[in-house]
Amino acid sequence: MLILSMNNNNRLYLILIGSIVGLALIYVLASQVIPKTLVTFTKAAPSSKISLGESLMLGEKILARADGTDKCKVNIYVLDGTGKGIVGKRVALEGAEGIDPKEVVSNSEGKAAFSISSNIEKQYDLTAKIEGVELTKSIKVTFRN
After folding, report:
1. In which order are the strands placed within the sheet that holds 111-116?
2. What is the spatial distance between Cα 102 and Cα 145, in angstroms, rounded to a whole number?
3. Number of domains comprising the chain
């Protein structure tokens, strides 16, 4: 009844003020409330489920001199099912005497790096264990004189 008794100018002002308040409310919702809510709902927790099928064993350098000082380098990448690195997992490398270190904790990329040296001219077949579970992949490193 109030609007019916107003003249046209007052109704126009009321519509204009209502529109401005409505636009301000839309702006606040669009710029502040909704983005924060979406970020909260879409933040992924760091994965801790290891995928042995996705995890990698890569040779950075797989041929070295058998002089006890030259080193082969092998990297193990502990990955989840989506290919993202998992931090803080124990990785052990086996198959040769000169592995240094024998066990590494994976970094923020899921990487565990190893160096191998040998005085014996030989090819070694190396395997890795992630948290005590053997990785299905292996790698050969070769030492020559």
Report:
1. 56-61, 72-77, 111-116, 99-100
2. 24
3. 2
d(CA 33, CA 71) in angstroms, rounded, equals: 55
Separation between Cα atoms, residue 75 and residue 58, nearest integer Å:
5
Structural domain includes residue 48: no
* Rounded Cα distance, 4 and 66, in Å: 99
Is 28 within 8 Å of 81 (Cβ atoms)?
no
Predicted TM-score (pTM) of this structure: 0.67
The CATH number of the domain where 90 resides is what? Answer: 2.60.40.10
Q: How far apart are CA 26 and CA 44, in angstroms?
A: 28
pLDDT digits (tens, 9 = 90+) for 44-92: 445 679 999 999 999 999 999 999 999 999 999 999 999 999 999 999 9
Spatial CB neighbours of 137, under 8 Å, sequence gap ≥ 6: 55, 56, 57, 128
CA–CA separation, 124 vs 11, rounded Å?
Answer: 88
CB proximity list for 3: less than 8 A, separation 6 or greater? 11, 14
Nearest CA among 41, 114, 109 for reference residue 79: 109
